[in-house]
Protein: DNA primase
Organism: Tissierella carlieri
Amino acid sequence: MEYLMQKVSYLRGLADGLGVDESSKEGKLLLQIVDVLEEFADVLDETIENQEELEEYVNFIDEDLADVEDEIYGTDDEDYDYDEDFDFDDFDDYCDDEDCCCHFDGEDE
């Protein structure tokens, strides 16, 4: 970002060094362009700073959330008993609705 600010400063110095006259139409235009570029650079710099602060804040929230998840759910995968032999077809006995998702046969309609 500093590079952009340096370029705008260079343009301002160049305009001053060339003696761009503010009384001419072209001079007014060039000086206004340099002013607008400087404003854009300032706004972009501020936006980048805000983005960096937001990223830092989100990282802190993420770390805090991870701590809360560890506290609530624990971190051991051994705590969970996964049934690898689970069969979804067993649910067909509990549902009589043919339009229900448990009767999905995998084919597109």
